[in-house]
Specification:
By secondary structure, the chain is α+β, with helices and mostly antiparallel strands. The chain is built from two helices and five strands. It has a five-stranded mixed β-sheet with strand order 4-1-3-2-5, with helices on one face. A hairpin with a 3-residue loop joins strand 2 and strand 3.
């Protein structure tokens, strides 16, 4: 019997007032606290994109954090695409903006 927890991967985009409000640092901090791996980056002036891998409950919590954002942010839209986990990440970090 395999006791390894099921790993899942979510690709998340949030849109709104997400630039200049510490959004990526907020996401990185909580991703590391929760224990998911992946990355976050700015896309355009109003969108933040992230990929997170981990146990289902942790990834679902990560998605909620993305949708809430830091106090000064405002998330107007969010989209989540479920992908196959790859195990490619060792930790969670901020990537350079597109």
């Amino acid at each position: 019997m395999d006791d390894q927890p099921e790993l899942i991967r979510a690709h998340v985009w949030v849109k709104g007032r997400v630039q200049g409000v510490g959004f990526r640092a907020h996401v990185e901090f909580y991703a590391r606290q929760i224990g998911v791996t992946g990355w976050v980056r700015n896309v355009d002036y109003d969108t933040v994109e992230a990929v997170a891998e981990g146990e289902r409950a942790k990834v679902e919590r990560f998605i909620e954090i993305m949708k809430e954002g830091p106090r000064m942010a405002r998330v107007d839209e969010s989209r989540v695409e479920w992908e196959n986990p790859t195990g490619e990440f060792r930790e969670f970090g901020v990537r350079r903006s597109l």
